[in-house]
Design goal:
- The structure holds 2 protein chains of 2 kinds.
- Chain A has a single domain, classed as 5'-nuclease (Rossmann fold), CATH 3.40.50.1010.
- Helices cover 58% and strands 10% of the residues of chain A.
- Chain A is built from 8 helices and 5 strands; from the N terminus they run βααβααβααβαβα.
- Chain B is of the alpha+beta class.
- Chain B contains 2 helices and 2 strands, in the order E-E-H-H.
- Classes of the chains: A alpha/beta, B alpha+beta.
- At the A-B interface, helix 1, helix 2, helix 3 and helix 4 of A face helix 1 and helix 2 of B.
């Protein structure tokens, strides 16, 4: 498989730092070293809210620790420029695929980026992405780790 | 894009010849530099996060992201 760009969902970004799943973090580092990794701006708010508001105890003992973790999670992720047309496109994706508008912003970025692959851990969004993009362009971290192990990425 | 480079030894030292059409030395150097930096950044991110030994519950990525998006 040849993929010049990866669009990463918040779910995959959070799971890529799991200490108990070294294959995931290895595979994600492999991708970051070789390909562009993109996400819509929303990823910053979601990662920030998960780390600082919803589950702070999981990410560090102090505010400074958690601020550093957020910076490290987002390191190497390029925030895609917002396009006016994406508003209507995401609306269509939401209604057509039955996902939330927030999910749709990630899927829209993948659809608007030729040849990109969406990395996502959430089953519902991955199923929608597989329909919209094709199975080979909607991958979980398990799929990614397997592809890296096989040497196809 | 794959780049083929041929090395030739001359009186002045070793010269690298870029054997690919449409590329010049600046393109090749820039591409090599970008790949190097990207690789270093990815490794640094992974090492920093690994040192923290963050252990999240199974399925945390999907579940916590879903919490952010569902009403």
């Amino acid at each position: 498989m040849s993929a010049p760009v990866f669009v990463v969902d918040t779910s995959a970004l959070i799971d890529s730092l799991q200490a108990d799943h070294e294959a995931w973090s290895e595979a994600f580092a492999h991708v970051q070293a070789r390909y562009d990794v993109l996400a819509p701006l929303r990823v910053v708010y979601e990662v920030g809210n998960i780390v600082h508001r919803k589950h702070p105890e999981a990410f560090g003992k102090s505010l400074e620790d958690r601020q550093q973790v957020v910076a490290e999670i987002l390191q190497g992720v390029t925030i895609a420029a917002w396009e006016k047309e994406s508003v209507a496109r995401a609306g269509e994706i939401t209604e057509r695929h039955g996902v939330t508008y927030y999910d749709a912003t990630f899927l829209d970025l993948a659809l608007a980026t030729p040849g990109s692959v969406l990395l996502v851990q959430d089953e519902k969004l991955r199923e929608a992405a597989a329909k919209a993009l094709g199975k080979e362009r909607a991958l979980s971290l398990d799929h990614l780790a397997a592809a890296v192990k096989k040497g196809t990425l | 894009m794959s780049i083929k480079i041929q090395f030739r030894e001359t009186n002045e030292g070793i010269t690298a010849y870029i054997l690919a059409s449409g590329l010049n030395a600046n393109d090749v150097a820039r591409q090599a530099f970008e790949e190097k930096v990207r690789g270093m950044m990815a490794r640094k991110r992974r090492e920093s996060l690994a040192k923290r030994r963050i252990r999240l519950p199974k399925g945390a990525g999907a579940r916590w992201t879903r919490e952010e998006r569902d009403e």
